[in-house]
C-alpha cells in the first residue's frame, strides 16, 4: 500500500535513466570506429567546409539565374 503514496516518480526516473544509458557514445558509433577525437574533428571540419562551398556555389548560380 505504501508504494502508491509516493507516485510514479521513481518509475519515471528509472525509465529516463534506461533510455539515457541506452544511447551510444560518439566514439562507439559505426561511422566513428577506429578514429581518434582529433581525426573525427578534422573529418567533420572538412565536411562542413565542403557544405559551405557548395552553398556558396548554389547561391552564385541562383544570382546568375536571376540576372538573365
UniProtKB/TrEMBL annotation:
InterPro entries: SERF-like_N, SERF1/2-like. Residues 1-68 are annotated as: Disordered. Residues 7-42 form the Small EDRK-rich factor-like N-terminal domain. Residues 38-68 have a biased composition (Basic and acidic residues). PANTHER family: SI:CH211-39K3.2-RELATED, SMALL EDRK-RICH FACTOR 1. Belongs to the SERF family. This is Small EDRK-rich factor-like N-terminal domain-containing protein. It comes from Trichogramma kaykai. The lineage of its organism: Eukaryota, Metazoa, Ecdysozoa, Arthropoda, Hexapoda.
